[in-house]
Amino acid sequence: MLAHSLRGIRFDMVYSCSSPLSMETAEILNRDRKRAFSVIKRLALADFKADFEINGECFDLSLCIYTMMAQSRRFCSSIHAQLKIVEKRLLEIVENIGALYRGNVLIVMEPLMVKLLINHFLTEQNSETKWNTIRPASLSILHSDAKGCHLILNNDISHYQCKSVA
């Protein structure tokens, strides 16, 4: 159903994280389109595996996110610093994609990555509200234009069958 609802939107490229669910979702959303892409580009998200190491210390990304959600602004400052590094790298990737295309680009990524993007774009809101009102899997659109990037949230996941996020 999600693929059907997106059928009227023209994509200039389709990107996906390398996880099997993300790739499967990207293929489903790309299938049977007037201008389908034979090759879906993979995002270079090697830095964002479940465990990542910074300054000799190993961190579990999902645990970091969970800690942030559970403790609001009282989470460990070292975890916050690590997430900021990951968030910065993710934003660089998204901005590079935005610089390559002037139209619509479909990016399918894991819920944790979307959480980090949403966290960046909603910094003006209360932290607790920001984390608790956003579902872990949602269809969100990052719109890039001359004024910059704007995240358009659409938390309707009624058509969504996978745990990946477009």
Draw up the topology in text.
Elements: H1 2-5, E1 11-16, H2 20-30, E2 41-42, E3 51-54, E4 57-60, H3 61-71, H4 77-100, E5 104-108, H5 111-121, H6 127-132, E6 139-145, E7 148-154
Parallel strand pairs: 1-2, 1-5
Antiparallel strand pairs: 3-4, 6-7
Protein name: Phosphoglycerate mutase
InterPro entries: His_Pase_superF_clade-1, His_PPase_superfam
Estimate percent helicity: 40-55%
Q: Residue ranges: pLDDT <50 for 5 or more in a row? A: 126-138, 155-166
The shape is: globular
Question: Can you tell me the CATH class?
Answer: Alpha Beta
The major pleated sheet works out as:
3 strands, parallel
> Taking all residues together, what is the mean pLDDT?
63
Number of strands: 7
Q: What is the CATH T-level topology? A: Rossmann fold
Counted by DSSP, the helix tally is 6
Kindly provide the radius of gyration, computed on alpha-carbon positions and rounded to a whole number of angstroms: 16 Å
Strand percentage = 15-25%
